[in-house]
Amino acid sequence: MSARAKIQAEEIALIPSLRKEVEQKDINAIHDFMQKIATHSDASFIVIGDNKGLHLFHSVFADRVGHTLVGGDNEEVLHGKSTTTIRKGGLGISLRSKAPIFNDAGQVVGIVSVGYLTSYLDTITVSKVVNILIAAVLLLLALFIFSWFFTRSIKKQIFSLEPREIGLLVRQQKAMMESIYEGVIAIDDERRIEVINQAARKLLGLSRPARELRGQLISEVIDPVPFFKTQTMLAKDTHDEICRFNDLTVIASRVRIMLEDSLQGWVITFRDRNEIDSLSAQLSQVKRYVDNLRIMRHEQLNRMTTLSGLLHMGRYEEAIGYIQAQSEHAQELLDFISSRFSSPTLCGLLLGKAARAREKGVELNFDPACRLDRPFLALPEEELISIIGNLLDNAIEATQRSPLPHAPVEVLIKLSEQELIIEVADQGVGIKPESRDRIFERGITTKTRGDHGIGLYLIESYVTQAGGAIEVADNTPRGAIFSLFIPATGTARHPAQELENTDYAT
């Protein structure tokens, strides 16, 4: 309270208009101004005095103006020092803080005194003590109720088993759970952890023992993901779903525990994605990437052979013309990609896809706005490569199946401060309306050959885990547009909002 009084006194003493009015001893102006401040202050009284110790304003007794300040503690203040004292004044004993008022020349021209009566302080103290006592009583009552429910719950849960039998069951369960190589978590119908084995704690990087994790919400141990949403869990069981548990990408399964048609909870099993068969789906993308590089190598060897033959034959003009014809477009594409994308792996992928598309009679047109000149930390590079590679493969394959002449595939890859935008537009066969809602499901495909139903499933999994969004729209006059919005940090904006704010070429 003394600090509060001191701060108020010093702040009032710094008000320029008040300083000027005190210096001029304009009592009416001081009264009008200070009456507004006193109305909003919780202080018992506020007093303004001049440099001779006479009242210029009193918030309680207006008739004291012109009388000497009571208390005898003005000497230090008139010498320019703020003080806080407990003295008896006209209203009684009070805690009061005084601050000097200086004019522009630095001379003390007045005094501000802000005080709290000890009776007011006693009232505050009593109210605080009462509040503490009430809180203590409520706490004791809550502890009593909690203890009663806790003991009642314990009696229900032991099923009248003897302590020895309970101990044996616990040891058997622990031995069984620790012998399982997969991560296993059993949760109840309120999504609280009942059992978690050592493999699960190791995969999730949890250092706390299992006994400390029991009873915690699954969302407190694993960062919230759609896999653990109540609506999703109640809808159906799932097997081999790609998820992101904390910093680990896993393949997870979820099965409900039922007892007499009553839901008791779920059992979740999961393994590191790299240790299971689904890894082959990702490796297939790497194989296609290597195949693209092999195609580029073969094309280059053929060109060098042709050029060598022309030079041996002395056809120098033809050789120059051949070099210019073959290298102009390739060099332009190479310069564009190498200047816009910092990742050598991504550059190799895009060049390979462009070469492969040309072999199939399809052109890739890169939007001039393309730019990814710094690492995108929200996604591992292999996942980004998989997303772009699968999108391009799908667009090229859909364009091939469309009538001749084939329209080019439009590509936009742009990283802004907020998000990464990937947009691939083709004028291929398009997506049938009846299958549009299911194209991201595993095993659903519109292809007639090659991998079936894994590419778009992987894309959707990676984008969702990164907090992004996917929009699929019809292209004009035919074909499809896939637009991906992956946030650099935080949550991605809705695709519709992005399209309203930004005009991207497709």
TrEMBL record:
One of its GO terms (cellular component) is plasma membrane. The keyword ATP-binding applies. This is histidine kinase. It is found in: Cell membrane. It comes from the Bacteria. CDD domains: HATPase_DpiB-CitA-like, PAS. The keyword Nucleotide-binding applies. It catalyses: ATP + protein L-histidine = ADP + protein N-phospho-L-histidine. It holds the Pfam family HATPase_c. It comes from Jejubacter calystegiae. It is a multi-pass membrane protein.
